[in-house]
Specification:
- It contains 19 helices and no strands.
């Protein structure tokens, strides 16, 4: 048992590291561990490596909000939170922002653990029923998402266009032999990271002084948002084809918020809760429905052939420790980031972040022997596409068609 505790804390430290590095996906780090598993298993037990992966994924899911909020560097689960987070940072509320997403992520994990017995009974049944109509569910949610986040016919048409075109981009790049982790790193860097930062360069702004004092009082609306994030993440953990980004519409609807609403706090609470809750349930799904729902979960399913109740309890307890320690780390790291950024020329730091993202992309391209020219074309295309919502005045959430459309196509084909 002592070795599992060590594995948990090593995983937390690794997740914190991957979480603060712009553009690094947790699946990339997991792939490195899995690729070395033949050697590592001669030293450590499969449970040790799995606990390490669980702790790393939970810590990463929470701490990745720091670069997302302060630098505008997203991953799938944080992409829709960029603009609301940036608004608060530009208002001098960086520390408050970090506390909001920390509370949301921590609270959602607690809620999902408490409700786990109920989900264990209901969601496997729902999973079996939904199998034949998964593509219909995806399509309906997508249409609802577009309708929900648009106010005029003009915005609806442009949003639909962005959804379809980004979906085509996603479908094309996922048909290549390039690893899914590298593909997502490329297109998410362009669609949500580089494009958002590049557009903000037009303002020639500096990051304002961040408020030193902050106070967050939990009220019923905030608790509702946390609960909505936890429930939404649990549902996504069992629905094939859905991820944190697509599920943001569920969390927004359940909490009554959106990325364009005045209730920025409620929105961020729901999205951060969704991200961490989905991370946990994507792992638990291995036991409940025998189907891994994330890259980390796939690696774990190979390391342990048969998941028992013992494994479920161990991984649930690991996630509780990981999110508790990560909560403290997220606050400390976030405060340190906000102090370092106080008064810094935003244009310079933005250019530096863009360069770092591009350099990391090409480093992994070399590691995975991926076609550099193809990735360059995909990065340029996705960056150009990511700039469009800014000039059209519509939500960037519609660019999530990059993942939703390929899922609709795949599950439509499976149904026939």
């Amino acid at each position: 048992m002592f070795e599992l505790i060590i594995a948990c804390f090593l995983g937390i430290l690794s997740g914190a590291l991957t979480g603060v590095i712009p553009g690094i996906h947790v699946n990339t780090a997991g792939a490195i561990i899995f690729a070395s598993s033949a050697f590592l298993l001669t030293i450590f037990s499969p449970e040790f490596l799995c606990v390490y992966l669980v702790a790393m994924s939970i810590a990463h899911a929470l701490i990745e909000f720091v670069p997302s909020m302060l630098l505008g560097v997203p991953e799938e689960g944080t992409a829709v939170s960029i603009l609301p987070g940036h608004r608060m940072v530009l208002e001098g509320r960086a520390k408050e922002t970090i506390r909001i997403v920390s509370i949301g992520g921590y609270g959602a994990i607690i809620i999902t653990i408490i409700l786990l017995p109920i989900f264990a009974v209901i969601l496997p049944l729902f999973h079996e029923i939904s199998k034949p109509v998964t593509w219909i569910i995806l399509l309906v949610v997508s249409i609802y998402l577009i309708h929900k986040l648009t106010r005029t016919n003009r915005d609806f048409l442009w949003s639909l266009f962005l959804f379809i075109v980004s979906g085509i981009l996603g479908y094309v790049i996922f048909q290549t032999p390039i690893s899914s982790g590298l593909s997502m790193m490329c297109i998410f860097s362009g669609l949500f990271g580089i494009s958002t930062i590049a557009f903000s360069l037009n303002d020639n702004s500096t990051i304002p002084h961040q408020n030193k004092f902050y106070e967050i009082n939990l009220d019923k609306d905030m608790i509702k948002s946390i609960f909505a994030g936890g429930i939404s993440g649990a549902i996504l953990g069992f629905l094939p084809g859905f991820g944190p980004a697509q599920g943001s519409v569920i969390a927004q609807s359940a909490s009554g918020t959106s990325d364009n609403s005045d209730d920025t706090v409620g929105f961020l609470l729901a999205i951060s809760g969704l991200n961490t809750s989905d991370t946990l349930f994507s792992l638990i799904a291995i036991y409940l429905i025998g189907n891994p729902r994330s890259g980390i979960a796939v690696y774990m399913s190979y390391l342990i052939s048969e998941f028992s109740l013992y494994h479920l309890l161990i991984f649930t307890f690991t996630s509780l420790i990981a999110v508790s320690v990560s909560l403290v780390l997220c606050l400390k790291i976030g405060d340190s980031f906000s102090k370092l950024m106080d008064g810094i020329d935003y244009k310079k730091i933005s250019i530096a972040v863009i360069l770092l993202m591009v350099i990391l992309l090409y480093i992994f391209a070399v590691i995975y022997s991926a076609p550099v020219l193809y990735l360059t074309l995909a990065l340029i295309t996705s960056t150009g596409m990511g700039l469009l919502p800014h000039y059209l005045g519509v939500s960037k959430s519609h660019l999530m068609g990059v993942l939703i459309v390929p899922a609709i196509i795949i599950y439509f084909q499976m149904g026939f």
